[in-house]
């Protein structure tokens, strides 16, 4: 999907503008490139220390956590076997479209704030204000829900450990990583992502063995695809799966957030995005298929009172007569959950830091230390993360999980929608200003990106409609105020924040005029980056098989 353009004459690294005046233009462009995209400040820098391997594992690992390992039990019981498979395929198509759109934006503008910054740059600052603080709160909520799940998983082994003690272990295990430089964070997430990937592949092989009758206990009756189990609650069950699938598939957008801290974004960001898409479809969806085949929605294990055993992965291991493996899988899920909490603490701090840098928050949060950490934003994000995490230990962990997952799910959908809108808006701006963005050498673009962007946008609108239908006609129980707020709290907060910003700043324009948008500041020009050119040309000098091998080995 990448279109690599080279000039027909001269060096591939040259930008043939033709006269003396253009040298000034190139000089100006280089200064702009060094301005915002590199994020140089006298107070400190966001260091570009994340490598290709870090970014690929970070993006893959961020969306393999609670939603997949725990949330699939709800999707299976509410939707049914086939509904869950269709839901994951549909949602993963949206994620793939979003990643291509986000990659296009990130390469052109690998700036601090990423998908939070793009609305302010291309659409309206009020959207960034409202959206930014909403996302910051969601990062805190995700941290809390991962902590809640951590406690739930501990209870699989024993209920003797108090929930607050389990939560304390989770908090220390996740937040302590942020004491170290960003490169250490990247290495830690690489290690956990390898573990997640190995677990999914291992589970896939084990589930196939179980289905083939190669485990101590064979599957007695293959009932997963009986007519009553395909769609357990009809159309509204399928709608519920779509909504919950968004929560399970969220996290890959961290590629954009980490873009400002990645070495050679032109080369590394597209690789991370494309490898994530490929692995999502070939591993993630395949695991969902074998899971649906191995565990019937009507299985008593999915409806038991003991909350800690609600992970379908653990249930299948026990069902196959391998309790030792069930313990190992539970321990791995425990690590994966902590990893996702770690990623969202990372994102939350950077969102808060970005908002402060744009005068949308206290300047105190805009401090970056010598190690490249937004230290004050980290501390400020950590405090509510810890507080809410401990508050969630009160009451039923399963109820807390279900409520928070719906709140977070809608916000993840809104993130995707904003990425699509920002991409479409950028295309309008480039056309209105007769910019050369899509004709510059070494750019990342394709003629299919535009239609895929709009198709993704339509799919997201369908997801929001599904959220509304799920509120009006829930699978279990009746429509209620609590359900409405869990499903639409994000939109209400966004609207109130947006209107408040407009009134405070007395800015009543809905959109920045196309001709007034600044698409020079913070822009990255790959054809002016010798290191980027060298890496790209070295890659394309390899044979097709060797290029594929670089993806397989995360190079």
UniProtKB/TrEMBL annotation:
Gene3D superfamilies: Amino acid/polyamine transporter I. It is a multi-pass membrane protein. The keyword Metal-binding does not apply. The keyword Protein biosynthesis does not apply. Keywords: Amino-acid transport, Membrane, Transmembrane, Transmembrane helix, Transport. The chain crosses the membrane at residues 57-76, 82-102, 165-186, 193-213, 233-256, 277-297, 328-355, 375-397, 403-422, 454-473, 479-501. One of its GO terms (molecular function) is amino acid transmembrane transporter activity. Residues 54-510 form the Amino acid permease/ SLC12A domain. It comes from the Eukaryota. One of its GO terms (cellular component) is membrane. InterPro entries: AA-permease/SLC12A_dom, APC_YAT. It is found in: Membrane. Pfam families: AA_permease (PF00324). PANTHER family: AMINO ACID PERMEASE, GENERAL AMINO-ACID PERMEASE GAP1. This is Amino acid permease/ SLC12A domain-containing protein.
């Amino acid at each position: 999907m990448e279109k690599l353009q080279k000039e027909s004459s001269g060096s591939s690294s040259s930008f043939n503008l033709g006269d003396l005046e253009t040298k000034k233009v190139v000089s100006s462009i280089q200064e702009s490139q060094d301005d915002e995209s590199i994020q140089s400040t006298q107070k400190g820098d966001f260091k570009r220390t994340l490598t290709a391997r870090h970014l690929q594992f970070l993006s893959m690992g961020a969306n393999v956590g609670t939603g997949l390992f725990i949330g699939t039990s709800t999707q299976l019981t509410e939707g049914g076997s086939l509904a869950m498979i269709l839901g994951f395929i549909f949602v993963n198509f949206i994620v793939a479209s979003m990643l291509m759109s986000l990659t296009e934006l990130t390469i052109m503008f690998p700036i601090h704030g990423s998908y939070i910054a793009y609305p302010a740059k291309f659409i309206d600052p009020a959207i960034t204000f409202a959206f930014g603080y909403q996302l910051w709160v969601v990062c805190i909520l995700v941290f809390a829900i991962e902590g809640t799940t951590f406690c739930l998983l501990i209870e699989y082994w024993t209920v003797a450990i108090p929930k607050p003690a389990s939560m304390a272990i989770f908090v220390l295990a996740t937040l302590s990583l942020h004491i170290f430089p960003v490169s250490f964070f990247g290495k830690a997430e690489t290690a956990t992502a390898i573990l997640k990937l190995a677990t999914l592949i291992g589970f896939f092989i084990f589930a196939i063995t179980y289905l083939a009758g190669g485990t101590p206990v064979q599957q007695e009756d293959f009932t997963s695809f009986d007519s009553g189990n395909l769609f357990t609650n009809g159309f509204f069950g399928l709608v519920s799966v779509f909504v919950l699938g968004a929560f399970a598939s969220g996290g890959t957008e961290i590629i954009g957030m980490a873009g400002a801290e990645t070495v050679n974004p032109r080369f590394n960001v597209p690789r991370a995005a494309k490898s994530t898409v490929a692995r999502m479809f070939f591993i993630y969806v395949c695991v969902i298929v074998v899971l649906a085949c191995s565990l019937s929605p009507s299985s008593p294990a999915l409806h038991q009172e003991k909350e800690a055993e609600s992970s379908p992965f653990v249930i299948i291991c026990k069902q196959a007569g391998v309790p030792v493996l069930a313990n190992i899988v539970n321990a791995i899920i425990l690590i994966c959950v902590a990893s996702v909490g770690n990623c969202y603490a990372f994102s939350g701090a950077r969102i808060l830091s970005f908002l402060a840098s744009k005068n949308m928050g206290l300047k105190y949060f805009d401090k970056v230390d010598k190690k490249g950490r937004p230290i004050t934003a980290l501390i400020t994000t950590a405090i509510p993360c810890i507080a809410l995490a401990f508050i969630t230990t009160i009451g039923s962990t399963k109820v807390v999980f279900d409520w928070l997952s719906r709140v977070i799910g809608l916000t993840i959908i809104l993130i995707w929608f904003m990425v699509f809108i920002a991409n479409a808006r950028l295309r309008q701006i480039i056309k209105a200003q007769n910019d050369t963005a899509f004709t510059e050498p070494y750019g990342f673009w394709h003629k299919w990106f535009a239609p895929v962007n709009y198709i993704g946008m339509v799919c997201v609108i369908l997801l929001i409609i599904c959220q509304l239908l799920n509120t009006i006609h829930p699978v279990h129980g009746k429509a209620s105020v609590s359900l409405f707020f869990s499903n639409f709290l994000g939109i209400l907060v966004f609207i109130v924040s947006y209107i408040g910003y407009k009134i405070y700043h007395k800015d009543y324009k809905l959109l920045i005029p196309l001709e007034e948008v600044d698409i020079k500041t913070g822009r990255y020009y790959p054809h002016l980056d010798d290191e980027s050119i060298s890496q790209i040309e070295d890659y394309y000098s390899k044979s097709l098989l060797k290029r594929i091998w670089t993806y397989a080995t995360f190079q």
